[in-house]
Amino acid sequence: MAASTLDVEVRSKPIVAFSTKSSQKRFGQLEFVGGLIFTSPEPLFGAISSIRFLPDGKDFIAVLDTGHWMSGQVERNADGVLSGLSHVKIDPILDETGNEARRKRDMDAEGLAVRGDTAFVSFEQFPRIGVFSTKNLAAATPTSKVPHLLPDQELRRNAGLETLVLSPASSPLQGALVTVTEASVDTRGNLYAAVLDGPRKGLFFVAKDASFSVTDGAFLENGDLLLLERRFNLAEGVGMRLRRISADTIKPGAVVDGPILLEADLAYQIDNMEGLDVVKGADGSTRLIFVSDDNHSFLQRSLMLEFKLTD
Length: 311
What we know:
The chain is mainly β. The strands form five sheets. Strands 2, 3, 4, 22, 23 and 24 form a six-stranded antiparallel β-sheet that branches. A hairpin with a 5-residue loop joins strand 17 and strand 18. It is globular, with a radius of gyration of 18 Å. The protein starts with 5 loop residues before the first strand and ends with a strand.
């Protein structure tokens, strides 16, 4: 049976410095603006896989890997710095019959793209991209599926359809949907990826660093693709990095790569970084907002970090 909407109380603690060792603000082309640590008495809060901001830059929709929607608004103080979340609601992602999934793996939502009143959600353990209306998330059922183009036999367990992102209409991809796998690689060790529609529809590949896996992405206004990547292994520890892929290189058959804009380990305020989106600041600047997935673990944190792109 479908569950009812939960109104969620979220408490926020500010992060005033990205580095745990200094008050440094500039990190290459990025300038740290501020951040938040979230806690909530609601057990379902957390586990954020992807977040997308609506055109006002305040309202957002996110998907949780527990098979839920989370919606709400970001709040800012008088200086325009993130100060909290408000009007937060959590709804189950319903199946075709209008019911909540019985098993987490049936609705393991990882990627999210929003085009107008339509949300596209990629699910990992049973690979598919569902299409939903955002007008009433509490009652939204998948109306159709978008072919993901990737060979199902190549999608690794828990390492498949991780990233789903919408390109700008004015970019070379002309508003196409793009998906990038988390750690599903071809025989050359490159990640499977695909442009799902538009003039450059087809498979392409992303060069993979052995230590990092792709967890989300966002397009810049000029069509360049930012990829958020995560590292977690015993030898190197927890890490995150941000890579920029030139718009001109994304085309069928290509292997794409690009410069690293940011790389951080636990000497910085990071956790299991899973979500990324791009918004416009009040000053017209390009802002990058990152969120973490706490896996509902007391050992991890739900974070939101904001940077200004200074180039």
